[in-house]
Amino acid sequence: MFNTKKINENGEVVVAICPLCNLRVEFIGAPMVRCYCTGDMYEPERIVWIRESDVPKDTGYDVENLRGNNKQQDFLPNAHTAEDETEG
Asked: d(Cα 49, Cα 28) in Å, to the nearest integer?
């Protein structure tokens, strides 16, 4: 996994933007990156790096439900505990 935020040669903070859907990238895998909006794969070298200050505040992420925000549309099958499962 690679960082989706870094400092460029000018000392500015830049963030990863998906070249397919123009949303922010939350996860960069290897050897390929998957766009969750389009379902397409691309190489990490194709990621567009934009200054964080230039990215509109309402620009979301292309893996919106990766962490289990929505039980109906969750990409991770084990993100939620079963209803009858309890910690003990």
From this structure: 13
Strand partners, 2: 28
CA distance 20 to 63: 13
Dist. CA 56–CA 46, nearest whole Å: 21
Label residue 30 exposed, middle or buried (CB < 10 Å: 0-12, 13-18, 19+).
exposed
- In this structure, what token pair is assigned to residue 55? 């990215």
Q: Are 74 and 68 in contact (CB under 8 A)?
A: yes
What is d(CA 39, CA 53) in angstroms, rounded to the nearest whole number? 28
Structure-token pair, residue 18: 């998906």
Mean pLDDT by 10 residues, the chain (88 residues): 86 94 85 85 91 91 57 50 56
Whole-structure pTM value: 0.67
Residue 44 to residue 60: CA distance in whole angstroms? 19
